[in-house]
Amino acid sequence: MDTSTGELAPDQSWPRCPRAAEFFISLFRAFAAHNPAIARMADRFLDCAGVPLINLIDHWVVPRTYSLDAELTTMGLVPKLTADGDPVWEHPQARLPRLRIDDAAVSVRMAIAVEDLKAFADCNDLPVLGQLGDPGSGYEEIRYPQHHGELAVIVRRGNRGFRPGSLSAADERTIARVQTALMARSRSGEGFHAAEETAGLIASLVDEIESDRLVDEFFDAERHFYMRRNAAARWQYARQLRAGIGWANHDHHTYRSSRSGFRALIGVWRKLGFELRERFYAGKEAGWGAQILEHPVSRVVLFCDVDVAPEELDIDYSARDLEPLRTAGTIGLWCGLNGESIGAAGLHHLEAEYDFARVRDQFVAAGYGVMPPFTDLPMLKQAFTEPETWIADPIRCGSLLDLGLITADQHDGFLERGVPGSHLEILQRWDGFKGFNKTGIDAIIRRTDARTSQQTSVG
Question: Which of 99, 217, 303, 370 could share a disulfide with 89, CB 3.0–4.6 Å?
Answer without folding.
Answer: 99
